[in-house]
Specification:
The complex is a heterodimer of chains A (114) and B (115). Chain A has 114 residues and is an all-beta fold. Chain A has strands at 5-7, 10-13, 19-24, 31-37, 44-50, 53-56, 65-68, 75-79, 88-95, 104-105, 109-113. Chain B contains no helices and twelve strands. The chains are: A mainly beta (114), B mainly beta (115).
Chain lengths: 114, 115
């Protein structure tokens, strides 16, 4: 079965540094999501794309986080500068059309900010 | 806003025991309800779903029934196996014009099954 690819799998960085995460959704999936999962909590949506357009970024801390999906395929999530509280698992998911259907999740990027 | 509340974990059971993980939700409309499972080191996978009241979702021996009157979607399995050890997440997605596919998750419940 096709999978959502994410890299890197783990990232350790120091406070105030910049970090970037990459996601390649399942081929043909128009909708792409970035979720943040803090240890012991459920995933929380950061940003949702429909093709190359942002549909929902209401929970994205825009002073330090940015996300793009320039050609409507793969996506990059950036944090600059990183803060201690950004330590979490960053999950990417995709779905075919984004309408009440199964989401396919990647294995995530575990970020540790020291 | 919409929210999902799950029972606190961890839940520790012996193999072949019965499982119930409670999930209740708050929503303004009629959401679709989901259970996702996360095995160690892996991403979340859809376990089952229900899209309207009284629907029963089922998969791999797990079941959950959409109860509108009690706003609940409890996960059940009659006989758990060691391989069911994982974190289970209850989630909802808005219905109607507000439906963007966005999922709102509960905090997750860790299940550990001992041989």
């Amino acid at each position: 079965e096709a999978e959502v690819a994410q890299s890197p799998r783990y990232k350790i960085t120091e406070k105030s540094q910049a970090v970037a995460f990459w996601c390649d959704p399942i081929s043909g999936h128009a909708t792409l999501y970035w979720y943040r999962q803090i240890l012991g909590q459920g995933p929380e949506l950061l940003v949702q794309f429909q093709d190359e357009s942002v549909v929902d970024d209401s929970q994205l801390p825009k002073d330090r986080f940015s996300a793009e999906r320039l050609k409507g395929v793969d996506s990059t999530l950036k944090i600059q500068p990183a803060e201690l509280g950004d330590s979490a698992m960053y999950l990417c998911a995709s779905s075919l059309t984004g309408r009440n259907e199964k989401l396919f999740f990647g294995s995530g990027t575990q970020l540790s900010v020291l | 806003g919409d929210s999902v509340t799950q029972m606190e974990g961890p839940v520790t059971l012996s193999e072949e025991a019965c499982l119930t993980i409670n999930c209740t939700y708050t929503a303004t409309g009629y959401p679709s309800l989901f259970w996702y499972v996360q095995y160690p080191g892996e991403g979340l996978q859809l376990l089952l779903k229900a899209t309207k009241a009284d629907d029963k979702g089922s998969n791999k021996g797990f079941e959950a029934t959409y109860r509108k009157e009690t706003t609940s979607f409890h996960l059940e399995k009659g006989s758990v196996q060691v391989s069911d050890s994982a974190v289970y997440f209850c989630a909802l997605s808005e219905s109607g014009s507000g439906n963007t596919g966005k999922l709102i998750f509960g905090q997750g419940t860790t299940l550990q099954v001992k041989p």
